[in-house]
Design a protein that fits this description.
Elements (H helix, E strand, L loop, with lengths): L16 H9 L1 H18 L3 H13 L5 H13 L2 H9 L2 H4 L3
Length: 98
């Protein structure tokens, strides 16, 4: 518990476990990932590379780098587009502004 006798001009940024669990398991987040995946599928078609590039541009306003593209391709090889969009919605880069 913070000492009420001292003021702090700025709080440190922290993420608590319940926040991360909520973002992973919450019905709202799962629905958002589904709607995001539907948008990507409608705009990019069935090409996985186009889907990945579009998803990154929508979520992060940038294309994926080579490592991210490889990881996302592997993910799409074994999981659904919804899983990829759910991952993107949980990235620190998506959640926090610097």
């Amino acid at each position: 518990m913070p000492d009420p006798n001292f003021s702090a001009g700025r709080r440190t940024v922290s993420t608590v476990p319940t926040q991360a669990l909520t973002l992973i398991n919450n019905d709202f987040m799962l629905k958002q990932a589904q709607m995001f995946a539907d948008r990507v599928k409608n705009e990019a078609g069935d090409d996985p590379v186009k889907q990945i590039n579009l998803a990154y541009r929508i979520a992060l306003a940038r294309p994926p780098d080579e490592a991210e593209l490889a990881l996302a391709s592997d993910l799409l090889g074994t999981h659904s587009l919804v899983d990829l969009t759910h991952v993107l919605l949980n990235l620190s880069e998506f959640l926090y502004m610097r």
